[in-house]
Amino acid sequence: MPVLVEGTMDAPAVSLAGDEWAGLACCGAAITPEQALIARSHSQTGTVLVALDGDLGGQAGAMRSLPVLSEAFDEVLFARLPNKQDPAALHAAGRGLLRDVLGSARPLADFAIEVELAKWSNVLDHLSGQVNAVRAIAPLVASLPTGRVAGEITRLARVVHLDEHIVSREVLAAVGSRGPTRSRQRAVRRTGADLEINVPHSYRDL
Question: Which residues form the signal peptide (predicted)?
Answer without folding.
Answer: none
